[in-house]
Write a structure and sequence with these properties.
Vanadium-containing Chloroperoxidase, domain 1, 4-stranded antiparallel sheet, 14 helices, globular
Amino acid sequence: MDAFLGKFGNEGSEGSEGSEGSEGSEGSEGSEGSGVGSVAGISAYAGSRTSPLLANALWSTQAELTRGYTGVGQPQDPVVLGMTQDAALQRWSKPVRAQLYAFDLVSGLQFDGSNADKARLVYSGGSSSWIERPDYDKAANQPKALHDALAVVLKASALRAERMNEILAQVAVPYSFFAMLLNLQPGRHRYTYELMAAALKLSGFGVMQFKHHFRVRRPADRSPLVQPVLLTPGHGSFPAGHSTQCSFLAALLYELVGDKRGKDLQPQLKLLAGRIGHNRVVAGVHYVDDIEAGATLGEDLWAYFKRKAVPTAAAPATPLQWLWDNAKKEQWE
């Protein structure tokens, strides 16, 4: 996104299983069009596009408005110094806040890859579960384990006709699918979207460490019969990034909202995370074991995230806790 902008699934048409995508638009104040508005509107002022016309117009306006002034005029009273954390975080832009959240989340987090066939994340006071190399990638289990795993992928391809729209839509970050369950509104739930983006950033960092550690080939690398309907991502198959991120989001959103939207929310979130993960098997880019390991990692990352994000004192002590507190206060009833 900015830091938040991107695709969910792979790199390029591949996207990136660790990128978060845009958390939605809070609304538009109107189109700037393709005429003067495109070179003199707010997007040009913000630097989204280069506009010598606007820069020179502002410069000449400033020169005329300040004619006759000497020195610095009458600036704000210097007694107005400093600001509270709340005021500062309200003032900073979302990309700036995102960097603060990301730094907090990775601080103190370490990857334990001392064993070639298993790995975990370690942090002060705890660790994730050990994620073990899948049977289909262990030399001792060949060729049966790999053949069995490929057979499941090939069988799942029969579901492509009914799942294709979902598969393609979920290359982008599946905010819409979670918004569907929670009736998320970008205006009313802007901090929830921002919280989801922070979670996706952490899960992307985390899952890529495991992918690099295990370095597992994709199904299409093993058999030309798989014929995936998406360009195979340019990183390892195990564990699955979609499954990691969606399991993480499912746990986070239920903790945030609880039963305020009804007691069906938790099972629906879990079903959604599972279906998005399984769609990657149907698409031909993952094995089932990848999805299961991703779900475990996602739940473990949520446990770590919760320690960092959920305030233990009356007032939030960190930017991430501030974000959680604001998301918690949004309209859920």
